[in-house]
TrEMBL record:
This is GTPase Der. It comes from Rhodoblastus acidophilus (Rhodopseudomonas acidophila). Associates with the 50S ribosomal subunit. GTP 1 binds at residues 9-16, 56-60, 119-122. Belongs to the TRAFAC class TrmE-Era-EngA-EngB-Septin-like GTPase superfamily. EngA (Der) GTPase family. GTPase that plays an essential role in the late steps of ribosome biogenesis. The chain holds residues 1 to 163 of 469 of the full protein. Residues 3-163 form the EngA-type G domain. The gene is der.
Length: 163
């Protein structure tokens, strides 16, 4: 089985960190500055015994301060179009923001399988914010730490169910 998963979400939620962990190489640039990934990029991901193509999306270009620019929207829509399934990433520490809701509405419209990931959820600090994820209308959030590698077994079983 060959399939493609797009990683979607607003800037700085940890999309590139997740991409790097799935691909196992430092292909995507990770930075504290939101939106440092400039283009969509694809890699070969492995999760459990699944191999698939994963697409990392940039948010904003550096220096771009608009919340949801045309370019960002176009890129997100292109990635959604290419994908068989979507990993929608939110920041569990920040909770659901208005920008998350904009992205969530783009994703819902596509009608493709979506897994909601509440990232940065290591420890207890992410729990409250992860609950806000229920509001996004994308199903139950999977608590994840892309940086520390927590939650990937659950992500694997959710992906198996979603496909
Ligand atoms: P992107 O803009 O969505 O691609 O986000 P990045 O992957 O570039 O990450 C943005 C920031 O969040 C960086 O400082 C990362 O180190 C941090 N980050 C990513 N994943 C996690 C995580 O699981 N836990 C914590 N605490 N920080 C994370
Ligand atoms: Mg990035």
């Amino acid at each position: 089985m060959s399939f493609t998963v797009a990683i979607i979400g607003r800037p700085n939620v940890g999309k590139s960190t997740l991409f790097n962990r799935l691909v196992g190489k430092k292909l995507a640039l990770v930075d504290d500055q939101p939106g440092v990934t400039r283009d969509r990029r694809a890699g070969e991901a492995r999760l459990g015994d699944l191999n698939f193509t994963v697409i990392d999306t940039a948010g904003l270009e550096e220096g771009d301060s608009a919340s949801l620019t045309g370019r960002m929207r176009a890129q997100t829509e292109a990635a959604i179009e290419e994908a068989d399934a979507i990993f929608f990433v939110m920041d569990a520490r920040a909770g659901a923001t208005p920008e998350d809701r904009h992205f969530a509405s783009l994703v819902r419209r596509a009608g493709k399988p979506v897994i909601l990931l509440a990232n940065k959820a290591e420890g207890r600090v992410g729990e409250a914010g992860a609950y806000e994820g229920f509001d996004l209308g994308l199903g139950d959030p999977v608590a994840l730490s892309a940086e520390h590698g927590d939650g990937f077994a659950e992500l694997f079983s959710c992906l198996l169910t979603a496909l």
